[in-house]
Design a protein that fits this description.
The chain is of the alpha+beta class and 105 residues long. It is built from 1 helix and 6 strands. The strands form 2 sheets. A 3-stranded antiparallel beta sheet has the order 1-5-2, with no helix packed on it. It has a 3-stranded antiparallel beta sheet with strand order 4-3-6, with helices on one face. Strand 3 and strand 4 form a beta hairpin. The longest helix is centred in the last third of the chain and has 20 residues. It is globular.
Length: 105
Amino acid sequence: MALSNPSVHTEVDDASTFIPQHSPTILNASNHSMTVFQERGTFYNCQVLKPGEAVSMTRKQTGPFNLVPYKIHAIVGDESCLPSSQDSTRNLIKVTAIPAAFVAG
């Protein structure tokens, strides 16, 4: 999972000057690092924001299926708080188990 992203902005003075329209934007206004990632069954677009940084998640970053909803998770912590691929797989199994059981009857 890559930690660098061209949409991460640093040293935010006026949040309204760079926020893309219709894109979720997360601004780390705390004094601690923040881990941000998206979830659509699996975790993706994982990033670590230092104090004063912000990230805008554009349509390209939210995945090819814009009609399928996704969640954004923001956790206070550094790189050690990023979800692993095992965490991602475990979450995918968790969110698909109930619908699969319902369909199977």
